[in-house]
Amino acid sequence: MCGIVTAVASQDVVPVLIEGLRKLEYRGYDSAGLAVLNGGLRRVRSTGRVAELAEAAAEVHAPVGIAHTRWATHGAPSERNAHPHVSGGLAVVHNGIIENFESIRARLSAAGYVFESETDTEAIAHLIQSKLREAGSLFEAVRLATAELTGAYAIGVLHETEPECAVVARRGSPLLLGIGEHGVYAASDTAALLQVTRNIVYLEDGDIAELTREDVRITDSAGQPVERATHVSSLSADAVELGIYRHYMQKEIFEQPQALANTLEIIGGGGLPIPQLFGADGPAVLGGVRQVLILACGTSYHSGLVARYWLESIAGIPCTVEIASEYRYRSSVPDPATLVIAISQSGETADTLAALKHATLLGMTRTLAICNVPESAIVREAALRFITRAGPEIGVASTKAFTTQLAALAVLTLTLARMSGHIAEDVEARHLAGLRHLPVAVQKVLELEPQIEQWAQRFAMKHHALFLGRGRHWPIAMEGALKLKEISYIHAEAYAAGELKHGPLALVDEDMPVIAVAPADELLEKLKSNLQEVRARGGELYVFADAGSEIPETDGVHILHMPEHYGMLSPVLHVIPLQLLSYHAALVKGTDVDKPRNLAKSVTVE
Ligand code: G6P
């Protein structure tokens, strides 16, 4: 969702701004723009892709600039609503949502400011402008103005009267600084800045920073100077390149063996090294946990749903899983002995962050973030962290982040099971061996791609699809349906197979492909009966079975056998063919696989 890049350097920053926006494209956007200072303010905006903005700005050169990709919230995607927004000689780019923008707008309109867009951001531009005289400097004007904003923001600001600096500020939305050899930069994430530096400074909520060519000054919201440490990013520039792949989603699906191996490296080759897994406070926070509450959105929510089965059956700990956006607004009954887990690939999702804060405010301070971005807001909010090491995930539809979340949750399950004495040594050893073998097992599943591709050809032109699963594979069916919706725009729904006869069976006919996740587990016989119900109504079945699932391939029943049955960790394997299926269906349909319409990778607004 909206991406920001700011640069102040000793050379032309326009190429840096454009390349930075390219690296932020994955976050999702529908228009782009930039503003620079070079003897005056110059603004260029475009409703197309960053490539079009680059063309439009080909003749623009300057040492100071701000740039933005916009994912529309207030007002349609149009050039008029694209950032930067200006007020006199001042320009602003913004990521987030200003909740009190209407009252600010009304007040400033009455004072004579003219609004040209429907955005909340334009209110910030005029508000800062209105503070300039009283403030005496752009920095102070930004500080005074941001004190009046409610909601979330990361902003970059320029003003003609201070042609050698840019001011940035954040609260709720991500923003980090890059200290480079030729200048100082700011961006929504590290990937945008690797082109110029690896020296990264993470701003805290309420921070305001003034960037000049050789220096950066940071204060808190009260104007007190603050020190923020510089981290050297270990992210490799290659990790965000496409390489031999056609799409990031394809690359990320095929990176899963490595991503899992990297994530699981922490468990080593012996027993579970519990003190190392969740940081020094891990044993204290996890000890005496009576129940688990998982908060997450989208694909991360599905990993939580799988974990519920693991936590209850293996660790004997009651677990509830809630959609973060629902949890944060409902009255619930807190129990301080609850371990609250926020799962998020980005660590930025506004609803998950707010739900985590809400749980903490209710007195549940045993919190854990399972996240793929080490310095993200959600990680910093939680008492404990488990960082998945999937590497940057660029495709909007989450794949390797999901399977590495599952790996992390499996490690957590075994940890809690051991700490509560709920697991026998040999059972734990068996599960650990399964975890260590996962990368190899996933690799074998990836080899099924040619057959899955054929299936995708057959049902890509359908308008609807039904996904069925049972037990810990029901969330996998949900994830399969979500993937298909996200990137191929085929309407898909997932049901616990036992629910079929309570409604969705009415939809089944020859036009409704039914995809079943059918591992050789304790629920297989039940699932087979559910599949009979589909076949009897003429529904065409696509069944992902295990080697030992023994479902006969007949007319209208297509079977794909997974290489092995994988017990507890089977959901990690069974999601892979569903990822491939939606990827290939999207290819057939010709959709924008990595940047599906209307969606964003990091959802930093409610
Ligand atoms: C967006 C993404 C999804 C993701 C969800 C939650 O909707 O498109 O892929 O699952 O956000 O994101 P998170 O970063 O919290 O896992």
TrEMBL record:
Catalytic activity of the protein: D-fructose 6-phosphate + L-glutamine = D-glucosamine 6-phosphate + L-glutamate
Entry EC no(s): 2.6.1.16
Main location: cytoplasm
Active site: 2, 601
Residues annotated as domain Glutamine amidotransferase type-2: 2-214
Function: Catalyzes the first step in hexosamine metabolism, converting fructose-6P into glucosamine-6P using glutamine as a nitrogen source.
Protein name from the UniProt record: Glutamine--fructose-6-phosphate aminotransferase [isomerizing]
Taxonomic lineage: Bacteria, Pseudomonadati, Pseudomonadota, Betaproteobacteria, Rhodocyclales
Gene: glmS
